[in-house]
Amino acid sequence: MGQSSETADGSPLRQLDELDVIVDTDAHIRETVEDLIPYIDDRYEGAKWIVERTEHPERDIYSLTHSLPPSLHAERGGWSADTNTVDKKLQELDEFNIDYGIVDPGLNLVLPTVNNERIAVAMMNAYNSWLLDNFLDEGNHRLKANLLVSHHKPDKSAEEIDRLANEKDVVGVALPSTGVIPPVGHERYDPIYQAASDHDLPVFFHGASTNTSHVFPLQRMYNQTYTEDHVIIHPFSQMWNLSSLIFQGAPERFPDLDFVFQESGVGWIPYLMWRMDDHYLEMNYELPLLQQMPSDYIHDQIYFTTQPLGHTEDNPKHLAMAIEMAGPDNIMYSSDLPHSDFDPPSELFNRIRSHFDRETVENIMGKTAMDLVDL
Amino acid sequence: MPSKHKVATTEELSDGSRVIAEIEGQEIAVFQIDGDYHAISNYCVHQAGPLCEGKLTGDMYIDDNGWDWNYDDDEKHITCPWHGWLFDVTNGENIHNSKYRVPTYGVEVEDGDIFVIR
User: What is the ipTM of this complex?
Assistant: First the structure.
């Protein structure tokens, strides 16, 4: 990492189009239950029988709720966008000159709220089959994708990883991470991590305030606005999950596995890292699982995607400084398109281009992601 | 020296509707609201989104009694379709923070034709 406005050849990066590659590490699609029903495997016929007869599956199969409706103002709304075809997704990438998108689910971010374990496994399986059939087998290799896994049944999720890990353009494993109880460091998830590690696929954790009821029920009861809910639930989820992951020793158990935390921005990272290091040094007697500082595990094995950056315009340098504190080698651009709090590439690029050297900027905007998922 | 650019006729622009024209390389929208015409740049100062392609909305405000939420349905606020930032089309100001301001332009109507002055 270098911190300079000048590059090795003396020319600072000025324009987005000077970048060789931009990778969106959180490119959502919007699958519907109707899309997935035909892909529910025959071995889950009981689950299929129930799902296809459910009039309101988003609330009676999943428990998708908000404190108030989101995005009443927005036309580019995550829940109303029709990004469920390759062409639509590529149009979104093209609109912002993004070269590659790592595809994540839309509705199935809510998978942790499915109460019935058999149906959760069936929907996981159906989503992955639908994803491959509709997005990855279309021959356009600009779209890469994470396999969806369910926290309900880690052994079934490991089977799912084994089933599809070698498919072309599968680059990671997505464990929707708000509502994962116990949190992600628990050894019950080791079958997922083992399978991901065996196939050299990083594990992506993506939060969702749609799931607040299943992990922070008091907050959901007393948050009177979507804003109160959404502002805290993403960082709450990721702080709990990152702390759990590190202190329960998952990186130590799976030293070759990389983990990616999505959709909480970057400001929280240095805060939590300092706090975790401080506790590690003080609380040695309860942390024998760890063999190095929490921040060292983070630098070695943990990545973060940038969206939502937040409103950083008042002093643009502060965002770059936060990335510097978090560790720029582990930070990757993400857009979150088509959701209404998306960040276009310029929002990040304009904040960092004069703070870091050219290589660091190029890495954050795309090359780190390319290395991570072997693009 | 500013010049006049015809963008529409009064017949074409009904109440609450808009036209977006390209004038000297810049996209400028003209809205008709309650018989008045307002010209504003089709450019959101937040992240350069196409501001004037969004919805016109009113404004939620707190009642004088300090409790009730009221909705002023005087739809003069343009909502950026990208992130929902709201600007008053009559003066170009962001409704939450007047430091964010979108350029506005003069409008003249002559013999049923609407002109932007720029």
Answer: 0.85
